[in-house]
Amino acid sequence: MMIYIRQWQQKMKPQPGANPLMVLLSWLLLGIMLVVALGLGLIFLLVGWILLLPLLWRKRRQIKQMWQFNKAAQQAQREARQRHEQHRQQAADRNDSSVIDGEYKVKDDD
Q1: What distance in Å separates the CA atoms of residue 81 and residue 87, rounded to the nearest whole number?
Q2: Is residue 18 within 8 Å of residue 9, measured between CB atoms?
Q3: Separation between Cα atoms, residue 30 and residue 36, nearest integer Å
Q4: Rounded Cα gap, residues 32 and 24, in angstroms
Q5: DSSP class of residue 102?
Q6: 72 within some domain
Q7: Domain range enclosing 51
């Protein structure tokens, strides 16, 4: 790894006979390219956030609908359970277990 770092350092150092104006312009061009790349990255990030808002609103609406459906289903289940208990209580009240309805015959013990 150190070998690669040294090679890059040697490539990045200006040559002894290099024109200082060219070195300055090349660094300036590199800086401008970095600023443009950073600006494009920020623009893409903002566009992504803007496009994400409708998706989040739609998901929020779906979650709210699911919550309301779940609440209504639980309420219906409670009401059905109460009706079932009422019917069972009424049936128990109507049919007293000590009274047997119907006909019977007495058999001889012969």
Answers
A1: 10
A2: no
A3: 10
A4: 12
A5: S
A6: yes
A7: 23-91
Q: For residue 97, tell me if it sits in a domain.
A: no
Backbone φ and ψ for 99, nearest 5 degrees, come out as -105, 130
Token representation of residue 64: 């709210």
Residue 106 lies in a domain: no
Query: Encoding tokens for residue 95?
Result: 């049919």
Q: Which position has the token pair 């800086």?
A: 31
Any idea how long the chain is? 110
Per-residue pLDDT tens digits for 63-91: 999 999 999 999 999 999 999 998 888 87
Has this prediction a pTM greater than 0.70? no
Domain count, the chain: 1
Cα angle 25, 28, 29 (rounded to 5 degrees) comes to 85
Q: What is the CA radius of gyration of the chain?
A: 43
Instruction: Give the CA count within 13 Å in the CB-facing half-sphere of 87.
Output: 6
Alpha helices in 1-110 (DSSP H): 2-12, 20-94
| Dihedral class, residue 107 (left if φ above 0, else alpha if ψ from -120 to 50, else beta) | beta
Q: Is residue 39 part of a domain?
A: yes
